[in-house]
């Protein structure tokens, strides 16, 4: 098989999926060190890869440009003349780009669609493996000699972003407290969200019993949620120890701010994968999805809490707006005490 001189990777969204592509980009660069490797993603997620040294260029697709913007991007790709296109998204947009690219070689990710549908609809597990999405991306290029290097996820943050985040964190004087705990109480879908009152209860215990400061992370859409959680914690534990950064930081600034946390507690969300990529000790709360889908944290510093005994799981591969059974036990049955004990376990391990 010929060495591709120009390679294009397609992944429009979302946060977690793009972060999970980082091992692929790293081993792709190691395998083809002299090749041009470019990436296509949506504009709002481009910062996640623009500073990646394994890439030469990142194309930013603005969804507000509609089909005209996509057609213009297709023409640019055609002019570039890529030898190999790696489509790890495989949706309508990425298929349009790859099918009219003129590239002689195109590979796509195996999403295990049949296995996934059978597990969700019939609750029958016919998966022959349970590998992570990061490994599924890489397996699509096995004919080119790629294999995972085992170094995990990564996220590259420019110095100026690090300095910006550090300046905002410095104002909080976190050294006043014994520990700093990060909370990510939101997720795109309701069935992936641990009840917010549980996050509040957990934070109050961490603040009172472990003298912890609490940092709350989320996007623009989470401003109200973050402010509410911070306010309720502050009412129970006064002393200016709780700060919500929801909607106040960019994705990379959020990642940089997470570096100041001893432990992160997160729903199954893009921020969970960012925390994982920054090698943070992580407690991941998993609701309506399951490990077979390949999105769970893989490293030893992560603890996954989920209800494996519920026959209704999984009810979706991405999450739902509400529990189809009406009881939402996959999240409601995760007790604050259980999460608290897992946080303490990680803190003890770090102290050792």
Give an overview in words:
The protein has two domains: 6-144, Glycogen Phosphorylase B (Rossmann fold); 159-351, Rossmann fold, CATH 3.40.50. It has 14 helices and eleven strands. It has 352 residues and is of the alpha/beta class. The model has no long low-confidence stretch (mean pLDDT 96). Helix content is 39%, strand content 15%. The strands form two sheets. The chain has a six-stranded parallel beta sheet, sandwiched between helices. A five-stranded parallel beta sheet has the order 3-2-1-4-5, with helices on both faces.
Could you tell me the radius of gyration in angstroms? 21 Å
How many β-strand stretches?
Answer: 11
DSSP helix count?
A: 14
CATH superfamily of the largest domain: Glycogen Phosphorylase B
Number of domains: 2
CATH architecture of the largest domain, by name, is 3-Layer(aba) Sandwich
**Poorly predicted residue ranges:** none
The fraction of residues assigned to DSSP E strands is 15-25%
* Average of pLDDT: 96
Stated plainly, the CATH topology of the largest domain is called Rossmann fold
Q: Tell me, what is the CATH class of the largest domain?
A: Alpha Beta
Based on helices, strands and strand pairing, what is the structural class?
A: alpha/beta
The succession of helices and strands, N to C, reads EHHEHEHEHEHHHEHEHEHEHEEHH
């Amino acid at each position: 098989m010929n060495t591709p001189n120009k390679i294009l990777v397609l992944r429009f969204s979302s946060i977690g999926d793009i972060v999970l592509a980082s091992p692929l980009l790293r081993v792709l660069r190691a395998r083809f060190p002299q090749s041009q490797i470019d990436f296509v993603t949506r504009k709002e997620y481009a910062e996640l890869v623009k500073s990646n040294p394994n890439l030469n260029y990142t194309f930013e697709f603005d969804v507000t440009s509609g089909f005209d913007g996509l057609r213009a991007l297709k023409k640019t790709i055609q002019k570039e003349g890529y030898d190999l296109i790696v489509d790890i998204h495989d949706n309508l947009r990425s298929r349009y780009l790859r099918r009219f690219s003129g590239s002689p070689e195109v590979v796509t990710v195996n999403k295990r669609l049949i296995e996934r549908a059978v597990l969700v609809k019939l609750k029958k597990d016919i998966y022959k493996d349970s590998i992570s999405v990061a490994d599924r991306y890489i397996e699509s290029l096995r004919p080119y000699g790629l294999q995972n290097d085992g170094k995990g996820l990564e996220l590259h943050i420019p110095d100026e972003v690090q300095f910006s985040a550090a300046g905002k964190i410095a104002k909080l004087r976190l050294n006043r407290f014994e520990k700093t705990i990060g909370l990510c109480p939101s997720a795109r879908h309701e069935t992936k969200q641990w009840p917010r009152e549980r996050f509040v209860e957990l934070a109050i215990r961490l603040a009172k019993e472990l003298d912890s400061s609490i940092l709350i992370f989320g996007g623009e859409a989470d401003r109200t949620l973050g402010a509410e959680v911070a306010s309720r914690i502050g009412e129970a534990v006064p002393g200016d120890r709780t700060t919500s950064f929801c909607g106040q930081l960019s994705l990379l600034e959020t990642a940089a701010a997470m570096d100041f946390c001893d432990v992160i507690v997160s729903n199954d969300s893009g921020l969970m994968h960012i925390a994982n990529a920054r090698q943070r000790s992580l407690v991941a709360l998993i609701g309506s999805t399951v490990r077979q889908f390949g999105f769970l944290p893989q490293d030893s510093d992560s603890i996954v809490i989920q209800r494996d005994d519920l026959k209704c799981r999984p009810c979706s591969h991405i999450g739902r707006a509400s529990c189809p059974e009406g009881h939402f036990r996959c999240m409601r049955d995760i007790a604050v005490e259980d999460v608290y004990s897992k946080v303490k376990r990680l803190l003890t391990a770090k102290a050792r």
